[in-house]
TrEMBL record:
UniProt region (Disordered), positions on chain: 156-184
Kinase is among the record's keywords: no
Protein name according to UniProt: Cytochrome C
Source organism of the structure: Pollutimonas thiosulfatoxidans
Any one Pfam family match given in the protein's UniProt record, by short name: Cytochrom_C
Amino acid sequence: MNKRQTRIFAIASTAVASLLFLVLTVDSHRQFPELTNADSITEEVVRGQDVWHANNCINCHTIFGEGAYYAPDLTKITQHRGVPYLTAFMKDPSQFYDEQTHRRLMPNPNLNDQEISDVIAFMDWVSKVDNQGWPPRPILVTGGSIPGTDLSIAQQQERGEATVAEEGATGSLPPGARPVSPGNDPIALGQALFKTAVPTCAACHSTAPGVNLAGPTLAGLATRAEEVIASPDYKGKATTAEEFVHESIVDPSAYLHPGPMYSANSVSFMPTSYGKDLTSEQIDQLVAYLMSFK
């Protein structure tokens, strides 16, 4: 091309690129209200955002990939933890994590009940924004160690050495679990539900021995269920391990696992929505999978 043709090509290319950029910008703004659930921005959500900023939560936590990356990403926190858990946690974080066991201790923000409710409303709005699948994995915060290692799961995840807790140190199946194939195998279907139900069970429960997350580890659940039923402290209606696991899914407060991390005021932090959101067949599949952990 000669100089005149080169100049025309450069000007035309710039014009086309500018026009394309303008069209994409207008289209993005057109979709923002739907993508961000703008209709769900209530006064409570706005107040919660103000509390979030006033306490500089982003100095430690991350939402939408923005923040300090010092503490867990909270973009989907309300989908991983229920309102009772989040409320109890913000009232007194020290009962969940301590500096002797965990490297990082969240300070008590000293929020009143209204401020806590507002923050949860804000985080719930955040969790429902279409963010193209961010973050890519559930948060993992625990003082337990992955078997065969000296580092906690949280520490290994920071170093890129840990994946999900249930895989253990080598990526093998958890103790007590057996290899399954897809199809109509209820254990395989239950395993899929364990990872895909909303809220996902894997976000709160590990299947590795000794690794307690927001919920207790499910390693050895079948054996532990029999022990609980035989205990005089058990006041539920289950008479078999299978019935106990089923009861724990649909009525989590029927038996409260010991420890302040798991309940408050005789109410379990585990969501009560599974009995309504899952079919009886799906619950049976989930029970079959959990019963494989002897």
